[in-house]
Amino acid sequence: MINSTNSLLPQGEQLYKKMIEEVQDYAILLLDLDGNVQNWNIGAEKIKGYKEADILGKNFSLFYLPEDRASKLPKTLINSATLNGRATHEGWRVRNDGSTFWGSVVITALHSDDGDVIGFTKVTRDLTERKLAEEEKARDTRSIELQNRQLEEFAYITSHDLQEPIRKIQTFINLAKKNTDDKELLNNYLDKMSISADKMVSLIKDILNFSRLSSDKNQFISVNLVDILTEVIGELDLLIEEKKAIITVSSLPVIDAIPIQMNQLFNNLIHNAIKFNNGYPSIVIQHEIVKNDTGQYHLITISDNGIGFDQQYAEIAFKPFKRLTTNHSGTGIGLALCKRIVENHNGTISVASVLGEGTIFTILFPA
Amino acid sequence: MIDDDPDDREFFQIALDMTGIRYTLKTAESAVEALNIFPEFLELPDYIFLDLNMPLISGIQFLQIFRESADLNKVPIIIFSTSSYHKDIEDTKALGASHFLSKTSDIDRLSEVVVSILKGNDLPFILT
Protein backbone atom coordinates (compact mmCIF):
# COMPACT_ATOMS: atom_id res chain seq x y z
CA MET A 1 0.00 0.00 0.00
CA ILE A 2 1.37 3.39 -1.00
CA ASN A 3 0.67 6.08 1.40
CA SER A 4 1.99 9.63 1.85
CA THR A 5 4.28 10.09 4.80
CA ASN A 6 1.83 12.48 6.39
CA SER A 7 -0.94 9.99 6.75
CA LEU A 8 1.49 7.63 8.49
CA LEU A 9 2.04 10.23 11.18
CA PRO A 10 -0.12 9.91 14.22
CA GLN A 11 -3.03 12.28 13.96
CA GLY A 12 -1.70 14.65 16.63
CA GLU A 13 1.63 15.08 14.90
CA GLN A 14 -0.03 15.73 11.56
CA LEU A 15 -2.22 18.39 13.12
CA TYR A 16 0.86 19.90 14.63
CA LYS A 17 2.64 20.04 11.26
CA LYS A 18 -0.46 21.65 9.68
CA MET A 19 -0.55 24.21 12.40
CA ILE A 20 2.96 25.36 11.63
CA GLU A 21 2.43 25.25 7.89
CA GLU A 22 -0.63 27.42 8.01
CA VAL A 23 0.48 30.09 10.47
CA GLN A 24 0.34 33.29 8.44
CA ASP A 25 1.83 35.98 10.66
CA TYR A 26 5.07 34.25 11.53
CA ALA A 27 7.70 32.75 9.25
CA ILE A 28 8.54 29.47 11.01
CA LEU A 29 11.55 27.69 9.56
CA LEU A 30 13.63 24.68 10.34
CA LEU A 31 17.35 25.18 9.64
CA ASP A 32 20.06 22.54 9.57
CA LEU A 33 23.38 23.03 11.35
CA ASP A 34 24.71 25.18 8.50
CA GLY A 35 21.61 27.33 8.36
CA ASN A 36 20.10 25.73 5.24
CA VAL A 37 16.32 25.96 5.03
CA GLN A 38 14.57 22.61 5.69
CA ASN A 39 10.92 23.63 5.74
CA TRP A 40 8.70 26.55 4.86
CA ASN A 41 5.29 27.80 5.97
CA ILE A 42 2.64 30.17 4.63
CA GLY A 43 3.87 32.92 6.95
CA ALA A 44 7.39 32.58 5.54
CA GLU A 45 6.06 32.77 2.01
CA LYS A 46 4.00 35.85 2.84
CA ILE A 47 6.80 37.64 4.69
CA LYS A 48 9.78 36.71 2.55
CA GLY A 49 8.09 36.15 -0.81
CA TYR A 50 9.73 32.80 -1.74
CA LYS A 51 7.79 29.71 -2.83
CA GLU A 52 8.69 26.59 -0.90
CA ALA A 53 10.31 24.97 -3.99
CA ASP A 54 12.60 27.97 -4.54
CA ILE A 55 14.00 28.12 -1.05
CA LEU A 56 14.32 24.60 0.40
CA GLY A 57 18.00 23.78 0.80
CA LYS A 58 19.14 27.40 0.38
CA ASN A 59 21.00 29.15 3.18
CA PHE A 60 18.99 31.52 5.37
CA SER A 61 21.68 34.19 4.90
CA LEU A 62 19.82 34.92 1.65
CA PHE A 63 17.33 36.93 3.76
CA TYR A 64 20.01 39.32 4.99
CA LEU A 65 21.28 42.62 3.55
CA PRO A 66 24.59 42.38 1.64
CA GLU A 67 26.36 44.39 4.35
CA ASP A 68 24.99 42.07 7.08
CA ARG A 69 26.17 39.04 5.09
CA ALA A 70 29.58 40.70 4.68
CA SER A 71 29.79 41.22 8.44
CA LYS A 72 28.74 37.57 8.94
CA LEU A 73 25.63 38.44 10.97
CA PRO A 74 23.76 35.19 10.01
CA LYS A 75 26.70 33.06 11.16
CA THR A 76 27.04 35.10 14.35
CA LEU A 77 23.37 34.51 15.19
CA ILE A 78 23.66 30.74 14.56
CA ASN A 79 26.78 30.58 16.73
CA SER A 80 25.07 32.54 19.46
CA ALA A 81 22.05 30.19 19.34
CA THR A 82 24.36 27.16 19.52
CA LEU A 83 26.13 28.62 22.52
CA ASN A 84 23.20 30.15 24.42
CA GLY A 85 20.28 28.07 23.24
CA ARG A 86 18.69 31.03 21.48
CA ALA A 87 19.53 34.26 19.70
CA THR A 88 17.32 37.26 18.97
CA HIS A 89 17.79 40.07 16.52
CA GLU A 90 15.88 42.91 14.87
CA GLY A 91 16.90 44.44 11.57
CA TRP A 92 16.18 45.08 7.92
CA ARG A 93 15.83 41.89 5.86
CA VAL A 94 15.48 41.31 2.11
CA ARG A 95 12.47 39.77 0.38
CA ASN A 96 12.64 37.67 -2.79
CA ASP A 97 11.75 40.74 -4.89
CA GLY A 98 14.61 42.75 -3.34
CA SER A 99 12.35 44.92 -1.13
CA THR A 100 13.13 45.09 2.58
CA PHE A 101 11.14 44.53 5.76
CA TRP A 102 11.95 45.01 9.44
CA GLY A 103 12.29 41.53 10.87
CA SER A 104 12.15 40.49 14.49
CA VAL A 105 13.92 37.13 14.64
CA VAL A 106 14.27 34.41 17.27
CA ILE A 107 16.60 31.49 16.46
CA THR A 108 16.37 28.56 18.84
CA ALA A 109 18.79 25.60 18.88
CA LEU A 110 17.31 22.09 18.62
CA HIS A 111 19.03 19.38 20.63
CA SER A 112 19.25 15.61 20.22
CA ASP A 113 18.57 13.34 23.19
CA ASP A 114 22.35 13.38 23.75
CA GLY A 115 22.32 17.14 24.00
CA ASP A 116 24.02 17.81 20.67
CA VAL A 117 22.71 20.68 18.53
CA ILE A 118 21.04 19.16 15.48
CA GLY A 119 19.47 22.20 13.91
CA PHE A 120 17.56 25.41 14.59
CA THR A 121 14.07 26.82 14.46
CA LYS A 122 13.80 30.33 13.23
CA VAL A 123 10.70 32.43 13.89
CA THR A 124 10.46 35.75 12.12
CA ARG A 125 7.85 38.49 12.40
CA ASP A 126 7.46 41.38 10.00
CA LEU A 127 7.47 44.47 12.24
CA THR A 128 7.98 46.99 9.42
CA GLU A 129 4.89 48.98 10.34
CA ARG A 130 5.91 49.23 13.97
CA LYS A 131 9.45 50.17 12.97
CA LEU A 132 8.27 52.90 10.60
CA ALA A 133 5.90 54.22 13.26
CA GLU A 134 8.77 54.35 15.74
CA GLU A 135 10.96 56.15 13.26
CA GLU A 136 8.20 58.61 12.54
CA LYS A 137 7.73 59.20 16.25
CA ALA A 138 11.44 59.84 16.68
CA ARG A 139 11.35 62.26 13.74
CA ASP A 140 8.34 64.04 15.24
CA THR A 141 10.12 64.34 18.58
CA ARG A 142 13.17 65.84 16.91
CA SER A 143 10.96 68.19 14.95
CA ILE A 144 9.14 69.31 18.10
CA GLU A 145 12.43 69.88 19.88
CA LEU A 146 13.66 71.92 16.93
CA GLN A 147 10.44 73.93 16.87
CA ASN A 148 10.70 74.61 20.60
CA ARG A 149 14.22 75.91 20.11
CA GLN A 150 13.04 78.08 17.26
CA LEU A 151 10.18 79.42 19.37
CA GLU A 152 12.60 80.30 22.16
CA GLU A 153 14.78 82.04 19.59
CA PHE A 154 11.71 83.84 18.31
CA ALA A 155 10.75 85.00 21.82
CA TYR A 156 14.25 86.41 22.22
CA ILE A 157 14.14 88.18 18.88
CA THR A 158 10.72 89.64 19.71
CA SER A 159 11.91 90.93 23.07
CA HIS A 160 15.09 92.43 21.62
CA ASP A 161 15.13 93.26 18.00
CA LEU A 162 11.52 93.97 17.19
CA GLN A 163 11.03 96.34 20.11
CA GLU A 164 13.97 98.49 19.26
CA PRO A 165 12.65 100.39 16.21
CA ILE A 166 9.27 100.96 17.91
CA ARG A 167 10.86 102.32 21.05
CA LYS A 168 13.00 104.64 18.94
CA ILE A 169 10.01 105.98 17.03
CA GLN A 170 8.23 106.63 20.35
CA THR A 171 11.29 108.40 21.71
CA PHE A 172 11.63 110.59 18.64
CA ILE A 173 7.93 111.47 18.93
CA ASN A 174 8.46 112.49 22.56
CA LEU A 175 11.52 114.53 21.63
CA ALA A 176 9.64 116.15 18.75
CA LYS A 177 6.81 117.15 21.11
CA LYS A 178 9.34 118.91 23.34
CA ASN A 179 10.81 120.81 20.42
CA THR A 180 7.82 121.84 18.30
CA ASP A 181 9.33 125.28 17.64
CA ASP A 182 12.60 124.04 16.22
CA LYS A 183 11.75 123.15 12.64
CA GLU A 184 15.17 121.83 11.75
CA LEU A 185 15.26 119.51 14.75
CA LEU A 186 11.71 118.36 14.02
CA ASN A 187 12.69 117.42 10.48
CA ASN A 188 15.69 115.55 11.80
CA TYR A 189 13.46 113.57 14.20
CA LEU A 190 10.97 112.81 11.43
CA ASP A 191 13.78 111.45 9.24
CA LYS A 192 14.93 109.24 12.09
CA MET A 193 11.40 107.94 12.67
CA SER A 194 11.24 107.06 9.00
CA ILE A 195 14.55 105.17 9.20
CA SER A 196 13.32 103.22 12.24
CA ALA A 197 10.04 102.37 10.50
CA ASP A 198 11.97 101.06 7.47
CA LYS A 199 14.16 99.02 9.79
CA MET A 200 11.04 97.54 11.39
CA VAL A 201 9.64 96.56 7.98
CA SER A 202 12.82 94.79 6.91
CA LEU A 203 13.09 93.00 10.29
CA ILE A 204 9.54 91.69 9.98
CA LYS A 205 10.19 90.54 6.41
CA ASP A 206 13.35 88.74 7.49
CA ILE A 207 11.66 87.05 10.45
CA LEU A 208 8.87 85.84 8.20
CA ASN A 209 11.35 84.49 5.65
CA PHE A 210 13.24 82.78 8.41
CA SER A 211 10.21 81.17 10.07
CA ARG A 212 8.69 80.10 6.75
CA LEU A 213 11.71 78.08 5.67
CA SER A 214 10.22 74.71 4.90
CA SER A 215 11.91 71.34 5.15
CA ASP A 216 8.99 69.58 3.44
CA LYS A 217 10.30 66.41 1.79
CA ASN A 218 7.91 66.89 -1.17
CA GLN A 219 9.71 70.04 -2.26
CA PHE A 220 13.04 68.28 -2.80
CA ILE A 221 13.96 67.79 -6.45
CA SER A 222 17.17 67.11 -8.32
CA VAL A 223 18.95 70.47 -8.54
CA ASN A 224 22.03 71.33 -10.54
CA LEU A 225 23.89 73.84 -8.37
CA VAL A 226 25.60 75.26 -11.48
CA ASP A 227 22.15 76.46 -12.64
CA ILE A 228 21.46 77.91 -9.20
CA LEU A 229 24.76 79.78 -9.24
CA THR A 230 24.09 81.15 -12.73
CA GLU A 231 20.74 82.47 -11.46
CA VAL A 232 22.34 84.03 -8.40
CA ILE A 233 25.09 85.72 -10.42
CA GLY A 234 22.36 87.16 -12.65
CA GLU A 235 20.50 88.50 -9.60
CA LEU A 236 23.65 90.10 -8.20
CA ASP A 237 24.66 91.51 -11.59
CA LEU A 238 24.62 95.19 -10.61
CA LEU A 239 26.53 94.67 -7.37
CA ILE A 240 29.11 92.50 -9.12
CA GLU A 241 29.66 95.17 -11.77
CA GLU A 242 29.77 98.00 -9.25
CA LYS A 243 32.42 96.30 -7.08
CA LYS A 244 34.24 94.73 -10.06
CA ALA A 245 33.89 91.33 -8.39
CA ILE A 246 35.30 88.20 -10.01
CA ILE A 247 33.60 84.88 -9.27
CA THR A 248 35.45 81.68 -10.18
CA VAL A 249 33.61 78.36 -10.10
CA SER A 250 35.35 75.02 -10.52
CA SER A 251 32.49 72.54 -10.60
CA LEU A 252 29.30 72.07 -8.64
CA PRO A 253 27.26 68.91 -8.05
CA VAL A 254 23.66 67.96 -8.72
CA ILE A 255 21.92 67.34 -5.39
CA ASP A 256 18.43 66.67 -4.05
CA ALA A 257 17.35 70.02 -2.72
CA ILE A 258 14.69 72.71 -2.50
CA PRO A 259 15.73 74.97 -5.40
CA ILE A 260 14.58 78.29 -3.90
CA GLN A 261 16.49 77.57 -0.70
CA MET A 262 19.66 76.79 -2.65
CA ASN A 263 19.22 80.11 -4.41
CA GLN A 264 18.86 81.92 -1.05
CA LEU A 265 21.90 80.12 0.35
CA PHE A 266 24.26 81.01 -2.49
CA ASN A 267 22.77 84.47 -2.89
CA ASN A 268 23.40 85.30 0.78
CA LEU A 269 26.93 83.90 0.84
CA ILE A 270 28.04 85.57 -2.40
CA HIS A 271 26.29 88.82 -1.52
CA ASN A 272 28.16 88.87 1.81
CA ALA A 273 31.46 88.06 0.10
CA ILE A 274 31.01 91.04 -2.21
CA LYS A 275 29.62 93.41 0.44
CA PHE A 276 32.27 92.78 3.07
CA ASN A 277 35.15 93.66 0.80
CA ASN A 278 36.90 97.00 0.61
CA GLY A 279 38.77 96.21 -2.63
CA TYR A 280 37.97 94.13 -5.68
CA PRO A 281 36.23 90.98 -4.49
CA SER A 282 37.58 87.69 -5.77
CA ILE A 283 35.32 84.77 -4.87
CA VAL A 284 36.28 81.16 -5.55
CA ILE A 285 33.72 78.35 -5.37
CA GLN A 286 34.97 74.77 -5.34
CA HIS A 287 33.49 71.33 -4.97
CA GLU A 288 34.83 67.87 -4.21
CA ILE A 289 33.47 64.59 -2.88
CA VAL A 290 34.82 63.52 0.48
CA LYS A 291 34.33 60.39 2.56
CA ASN A 292 34.44 59.85 6.29
CA ASP A 293 33.09 57.32 8.81
CA THR A 294 29.52 58.55 8.45
CA GLY A 295 29.38 58.48 4.66
CA GLN A 296 30.04 60.37 1.47
CA TYR A 297 29.63 64.13 1.20
CA HIS A 298 29.70 66.99 -1.27
CA LEU A 299 32.19 69.47 0.13
CA ILE A 300 31.56 72.95 -1.23
CA THR A 301 33.79 75.88 -0.30
CA ILE A 302 33.17 79.55 -0.97
CA SER A 303 36.25 81.63 -0.29
CA ASP A 304 36.78 85.36 -0.62
CA ASN A 305 39.49 87.98 -0.17
CA GLY A 306 37.25 90.27 1.89
CA ILE A 307 37.60 92.03 5.23
CA GLY A 308 37.26 88.78 7.21
CA PHE A 309 36.69 88.66 10.97
CA ASP A 310 38.30 87.29 14.07
CA GLN A 311 37.76 83.50 14.15
CA GLN A 312 36.52 83.69 17.77
CA TYR A 313 33.27 85.20 16.47
CA ALA A 314 32.65 82.36 13.99
CA GLU A 315 29.89 80.82 16.09
CA ILE A 316 27.81 83.94 16.70
CA ALA A 317 27.99 84.74 12.99
CA PHE A 318 25.30 82.10 12.36
CA LYS A 319 22.91 83.30 15.09
CA PRO A 320 19.85 85.27 14.00
CA PHE A 321 20.14 89.05 14.29
CA LYS A 322 23.70 88.90 15.52
CA ARG A 323 25.90 91.09 13.41
CA LEU A 324 29.65 91.22 13.40
CA THR A 325 29.73 94.86 12.39
CA THR A 326 27.67 98.03 12.76
CA ASN A 327 29.26 99.67 9.73
CA HIS A 328 27.43 97.71 7.05
CA SER A 329 23.71 97.67 6.48
CA GLY A 330 21.72 94.51 7.13
CA THR A 331 19.53 93.00 9.79
CA GLY A 332 21.83 90.12 10.68
CA ILE A 333 19.55 87.35 9.45
CA GLY A 334 21.57 86.27 6.39
CA LEU A 335 23.88 83.67 7.87
CA ALA A 336 21.24 82.34 10.26
CA LEU A 337 19.10 81.72 7.19
CA CYS A 338 22.04 79.97 5.46
CA LYS A 339 22.56 77.73 8.46
CA ARG A 340 18.92 76.74 8.64
CA ILE A 341 18.78 76.04 4.89
CA VAL A 342 21.85 73.81 5.07
CA GLU A 343 20.41 71.98 8.10
CA ASN A 344 17.13 71.49 6.23
CA HIS A 345 19.21 69.62 3.66
CA ASN A 346 20.90 67.47 6.34
CA GLY A 347 24.16 69.34 5.84
CA THR A 348 26.52 71.42 7.92
CA ILE A 349 28.03 74.85 7.37
CA SER A 350 31.10 76.30 9.04
CA VAL A 351 33.29 79.32 8.56
CA ALA A 352 36.98 80.07 8.86
CA SER A 353 38.12 83.66 8.67
CA VAL A 354 41.20 85.79 9.11
CA LEU A 355 40.73 89.50 9.79
CA GLY A 356 41.90 91.48 6.77
CA GLU A 357 42.58 88.44 4.63
CA GLY A 358 39.30 86.75 3.83
CA THR A 359 36.72 84.17 4.73
CA ILE A 360 36.02 80.59 3.71
CA PHE A 361 32.60 79.04 4.13
CA THR A 362 32.54 75.24 4.04
CA ILE A 363 29.32 73.37 3.34
CA LEU A 364 28.83 69.61 3.52
CA PHE A 365 25.81 67.98 1.89
CA PRO A 366 25.23 64.23 1.98
CA ALA A 367 26.18 62.77 -1.42
CA MET B 1 28.51 104.42 27.99
CA ILE B 2 28.90 101.37 25.78
CA ASP B 3 26.26 101.12 23.05
CA ASP B 4 26.55 100.41 19.35
CA ASP B 5 23.42 102.38 18.52
CA PRO B 6 24.07 106.09 17.78
CA ASP B 7 20.41 107.02 18.49
CA ASP B 8 20.55 105.45 21.93
CA ARG B 9 23.80 107.25 22.71
CA GLU B 10 22.08 110.49 21.70
CA PHE B 11 18.99 109.77 23.84
CA PHE B 12 21.20 109.03 26.80
CA GLN B 13 23.15 112.25 26.39
CA ILE B 14 19.92 114.30 26.13
CA ALA B 15 18.67 112.65 29.34
CA LEU B 16 21.98 113.40 31.07
CA ASP B 17 21.82 117.04 29.97
CA MET B 18 18.32 117.31 31.41
CA THR B 19 19.55 116.23 34.87
CA GLY B 20 21.50 119.47 35.32
CA ILE B 21 24.28 117.43 36.91
CA ARG B 22 27.81 118.16 35.68
CA TYR B 23 29.24 115.11 34.02
CA THR B 24 31.92 113.77 31.73
CA LEU B 25 30.64 111.14 29.31
CA LYS B 26 32.87 108.80 27.35
CA THR B 27 31.17 106.62 24.78
CA ALA B 28 32.31 103.44 23.10
CA GLU B 29 30.51 101.91 20.13
CA SER B 30 31.39 98.37 21.13
CA ALA B 31 32.65 96.34 24.05
CA VAL B 32 35.87 95.84 22.10
CA GLU B 33 36.39 99.59 21.84
CA ALA B 34 35.56 100.00 25.54
CA LEU B 35 38.13 97.40 26.56
CA ASN B 36 40.67 99.17 24.37
CA ILE B 37 40.10 102.64 25.79
CA PHE B 38 39.93 101.71 29.51
CA PRO B 39 43.74 101.57 29.90
CA GLU B 40 43.94 105.18 28.64
CA PHE B 41 41.68 106.44 31.45
CA LEU B 42 43.49 108.41 34.16
CA GLU B 43 40.82 107.41 36.63
CA LEU B 44 38.09 104.80 36.52
CA PRO B 45 34.59 105.90 35.57
CA ASP B 46 32.03 106.29 38.37
CA TYR B 47 29.44 104.34 36.40
CA ILE B 48 29.25 102.27 33.26
CA PHE B 49 26.05 102.09 31.25
CA LEU B 50 26.17 98.96 29.13
CA ASP B 51 24.03 97.84 26.20
CA LEU B 52 23.55 94.06 25.80
CA ASN B 53 22.86 93.36 22.15
CA MET B 54 26.02 94.48 20.38
CA PRO B 55 28.08 92.98 17.54
CA LEU B 56 31.16 90.87 18.35
CA ILE B 57 31.35 90.97 22.14
CA SER B 58 27.89 91.16 23.69
CA GLY B 59 27.14 93.07 26.88
CA ILE B 60 26.92 89.76 28.77
CA GLN B 61 30.40 88.74 27.56
CA PHE B 62 31.73 92.17 28.48
CA LEU B 63 30.38 91.68 32.01
CA GLN B 64 32.15 88.32 32.24
CA ILE B 65 35.46 89.79 31.10
CA PHE B 66 34.98 92.78 33.36
CA ARG B 67 34.49 90.71 36.50
CA GLU B 68 37.88 89.12 35.99
CA SER B 69 39.64 92.46 36.45
CA ALA B 70 40.02 93.39 40.12
CA ASP B 71 40.29 97.14 39.38
CA LEU B 72 37.39 97.39 37.02
CA ASN B 73 35.25 95.18 39.17
CA LYS B 74 34.62 98.07 41.58
CA VAL B 75 32.81 100.17 38.98
CA PRO B 76 29.03 99.79 39.14
CA ILE B 77 27.60 98.63 35.82
CA ILE B 78 24.08 99.55 34.82
CA ILE B 79 22.66 97.43 32.00
CA PHE B 80 20.93 99.72 29.51
CA SER B 81 19.01 97.51 27.13
CA THR B 82 15.86 97.17 25.04
CA SER B 83 15.61 93.66 26.36
CA SER B 84 13.14 92.68 29.02
CA TYR B 85 13.98 89.04 28.46
CA HIS B 86 13.93 87.25 31.82
CA LYS B 87 17.12 85.34 31.09
CA ASP B 88 19.05 88.53 30.33
CA ILE B 89 17.88 90.02 33.63
CA GLU B 90 18.86 86.88 35.59
CA ASP B 91 22.20 86.46 33.81
CA THR B 92 23.33 90.05 34.25
CA LYS B 93 22.31 90.02 37.92
CA ALA B 94 24.30 86.83 38.46
CA LEU B 95 27.28 88.44 36.76
CA GLY B 96 27.23 91.33 39.22
CA ALA B 97 25.51 94.14 37.32
CA SER B 98 24.14 96.84 39.66
CA HIS B 99 20.90 97.57 37.83
CA PHE B 100 18.94 96.54 34.78
CA LEU B 101 17.60 99.70 33.15
CA SER B 102 15.18 99.05 30.29
CA LYS B 103 15.47 101.51 27.46
CA THR B 104 12.37 103.69 27.51
CA SER B 105 10.79 106.05 25.02
CA ASP B 106 10.16 108.52 27.86
CA ILE B 107 13.25 110.73 28.05
CA ASP B 108 11.94 112.61 31.13
CA ARG B 109 11.60 109.32 32.97
CA LEU B 110 15.06 108.21 31.82
CA SER B 111 16.50 111.47 33.11
CA GLU B 112 14.81 111.00 36.53
CA VAL B 113 16.14 107.47 36.86
CA VAL B 114 19.66 108.55 35.88
CA VAL B 115 19.50 111.27 38.56
CA SER B 116 18.57 108.72 41.24
CA ILE B 117 21.37 106.41 40.12
CA LEU B 118 23.99 109.19 40.10
CA LYS B 119 22.81 110.40 43.53
CA GLY B 120 23.42 106.91 44.87
CA ASN B 121 19.81 106.37 45.94
CA ASP B 122 18.81 102.91 47.10
CA LEU B 123 17.14 101.41 44.02
CA PRO B 124 15.78 98.03 42.99
CA PHE B 125 17.69 95.90 40.46
CA ILE B 126 15.15 96.34 37.68
CA LEU B 127 14.61 99.95 36.70
CA THR B 128 12.17 101.34 34.15
TrEMBL record, chain A:
It holds the Pfam family HATPase_c. Signal peptide: none annotated. It catalyses: ATP + protein L-histidine = ADP + protein N-phospho-L-histidine. Residues 12-69 form the PAS domain. SUPFAM superfamilies: ATPase domain of HSP90 chaperone/DNA topoisomerase II/histidine kinase, Homodimeric domain of signal transducing histidine kinase, PYP-like sensor domain (PAS domain). One of its GO terms (molecular function) is phosphorelay sensor kinase activity. Its EC number is 2.7.13.3. The keyword Kinase applies. It comes from the Bacteria. InterPro entries: HATPase_C_sf, HATPase_dom, His_kinase_dom, HisK_dim/P_dom, HisK_dim/P_sf, PAS, PAS-assoc_C, PAS-like_dom_sf. Residues 157-367 form the Histidine kinase domain. Keywords: Kinase, Phosphoprotein, Transferase. Residues 87-139 form the PAC domain. This is histidine kinase. It comes from Flavobacterium cerinum.
